[in-house]
Amino acid sequence: MTDPQLTRLPAPGESIQILHLEDSELDHELVVMHLETDLTWPIEVQRVEDEAAFLEALEQPPHLILSDFALPGYDGLSAFKAAYTRYPNLPFIIVTGAMGEEVAVDTLRQGVTDYILKQRLERLAPSVRRALSEAEARESRERAELEVRALNATLQARLLEVERLRGVAERQSQRLEVQARQLEEALNLQKTFLAETSHELRTPLTSLLGYLRRADREAGGSQVIQDAQRVAENMTRLVNDLLQLSRGELVQSVEMHFMNLGKLLRQVGRDYGIRADVPDMEIVGDPGRLNQVFVNLVTNAIRVCGSPDLVSLELRERPGEVEACVVDRGPGVPDHVKPKIFDKFYRGKEAGSAGLGLTIAQQVVTAHGGRLDVQDTPGGGATFSVRLPALDAEEDDEVFA
């Protein structure tokens, strides 16, 4: 695109820069007189007489060129071609004393803006105004076309980028679909394994429990056999829970009784060699299920810490509830793990999760109307807090089945 300074109409108060190729001083003065009389803009006219001066003047392009057709050693058509080569949109008007009709038509066909006979100079000012207006319109049109082409190029580039991103998204979607299918297959295999393993374990556990009960009757109440029987009952319950969870079912079977939660925690402490200096505290709950909860939490804590000496049990009363805590001094549970630590099948090395143990514990606590949370232990470690409804005085006379 050419410089817009060359073809725009002059602003109000701005002079029209005109280059006049003319060898006659008198003819030049007549041209200037008509322009100054009939144009609304002030003008500045530079007169040159030969080719060399004309080409030099083109180094500072004007708004308009006026040229005689026939000059000594040069001609208007050659001057037009020289100007057009440099500035295609620059208006060029031939002002001549005589020109045949055929020659005039030929000059216009080659691109000259207009021609004016010197004996009809009253036509010069309107021709100049028209030439400048047409040049400005042509320049504006070319500028708009360039902007449209630039916009099209930008849009094309953006469309290519959109296509590229769409291809990336499609490939990513395909990878995610493959990963989702693989994950689904893995979960199905895991569920199948749990179901089959649970079925396989139920038979020997049932037999073991039967043998222990018979041995207890024959031994007349041996504490060791009773402890073994209690552990076998807990294992049987755990296997049944695993079977339920593998089918996508919730652990909901709880049998509520008056029970001593402190005694239960001390028993778990003895079984696993951890400190449990807790008071007696009566609540309403399922002793077997709550034992399962604290066994899961304690075994997780011991596995994470590597030693039962770093794990302890605490029990305290709060307004309207009791809180039993499994406190460990291990590596703790990272913040990004806490929201998903109780999810089914989540196995976190940092969290000490066995995949289902914490899920079962949470469901059992929820079935008791309580909640299970994990917080950081002051000084390092993790504390699993089990909060259960406290036993109100009014509940002493109620019967729980």
UniProtKB/TrEMBL annotation:
UniProt KW keywords: Coiled coil, Kinase, Phosphoprotein, Transferase
Entry superkingdom: Bacteria
Coiled-coil regions, chain positions: 118-189
EC number in record: 2.7.13.3
InterPro entries: CheY-like_superfamily, HATPase_C_sf, HATPase_dom, His_kinase_dom, HisK_dim/P_dom, HisK_dim/P_sf, Sig_transdc_His_kin-like_C, Sig_transdc_resp-reg_receiver
Domain Response regulatory residues, every copy: 17-133
Domain Histidine kinase: residue ranges: 196-392
SMART domains xref list: HATPase_c, HisKA, REC
Top EC category: transferase
Catalysed reaction equations from the record: ATP + protein L-histidine = ADP + protein N-phospho-L-histidine
Matching PROSITE patterns: HIS_KIN, RESPONSE_REGULATORY
4-aspartylphosphate: residues bearing it: 68
Protein name, per record: histidine kinase
Species this chain originates from: Deinococcus xinjiangensis
The encoding gene: sasA_7
